[in-house]
Specification:
Elements lengths: L11 E8 L2 H13 L7 E5 L14 H7 L4 H8 L10 E5 L3 E6 L1 H6 L5 H6 L4 H7 L4 H12 L3 E8 L3 H10 L3 E6 L18 H4 L4 H18 L2 H15 E3 L5 E4 L4
Antiparallel strand pairs: 1-5, 1-6, 2-4, 2-5, 3-4, 7-8
């Protein structure tokens, strides 16, 4: 009788690199996707993306939370087609750095969607966020400085046994200051069972009644789709159907049916 082979779980690493030019980011994103890296595992941050359309204002952190991270397609039309290939693209205001285009899971982390601890650290700047996800403080400070200077950051999640291959790919594409962390970026859990499961960034903008509405709609959509982004949009749509914002920006005012 043949022995049953037990496959070891895939261990992932997170490779980070700095690129001087937007064109380098554009090219490497396409190369990675062509090699089979899921777009959900690629993150990009940058201040100086060249826009084909004049942007009259930036989406604030709060705006992005309330609406969910904007789709890549919207920002692809502004900043170039490669952003439309990535997930969860938005413009965030990061302390000490300023307005930053963020794509991929790092954007959700910056919004505090992964854990309350990381959400709290975001107010202290990008360095605190990067150290919270496993980057040494000295390296994180260097990355923040490079972003402030107008360069671009990429974070890529890959199987541990292919780290060398992708380090070489990033280097060949112009990547500098490459760093590898021993774990993938944290993701928020799929289910919300109570208000305590909501990130502080979301919870503080909802009254207790609105929190309940959000969780009920979110859970129903997540059970159907198993997709967190779809479920979050469903939750916010239901909140916006039933509540208006008060003077403090909290969705607490119950709409009166006509």
């Amino acid at each position: 009788m043949a022995e049953t082979q037990i496959l070891a779980p895939v261990v992932e690493r997170t490779i980070s690199a700095i690129f001087a030019e937007q064109s380098q980011i554009d090219g490497v994103v396409r190369r990675l996707i062509d090699r089979g890296i899921p777009k959900e595992d690629i993150s990009v941050l940058g201040r100086n993306f060249q826009s084909e359309t004049r942007i009259t204002g930036f989406i604030t952190k709060r705006d992005v939370i309330l609406g969910g991270l904007r789709s890549g397609a919207i920002f692809g039309s502004l900043f170039g087609s490669f952003l439309s290939l990535l997930t969860g693209v938005g413009v965030l205001l990061i302390p000490f750095v300023g307005p930053v285009v963020a794509a991929g899971p790092i954007g959700a982390i910056l919004l505090g969607a992964a854990s309350g601890a990381i959400a709290g650290s975001a107010g202290a700047g990008l360095v605190s966020v990067l150290t919270a996800v496993g980057m040494p403080e000295e390296q994180a400070a260097l990355y923040q400085t490079r972003l402030e200077a107008g360069e671009f950051m990429m974070m890529l999640e890959v199987p541990a046994d292919r780290v060398g291959e992708y380090q070489i790919l990033l280097e060949s594409a112009g990547g500098k200051d490459i760093h590898t962390a021993d774990a993938p970026l944290p993701r928020a859990g799929g289910a919300y069972n109570s208000p305590e499961d909501l990130s502080p960034e979301i919870r503080t903008h909802l009254s207790p009644e609105a929190q309940g509405v959000f969780i009920t709609a979110y859970s129903a959509a997540y059970n159907d789709s198993q997709d967190k982004t779809t479920a979050e949009h469903a939750g916010w749509e239901k909140v916006q159907e039933q509540f208006d914002e008060d003077e403090n920006g909290v969705w607490s005012k119950v709409k009166v049916a006509l």
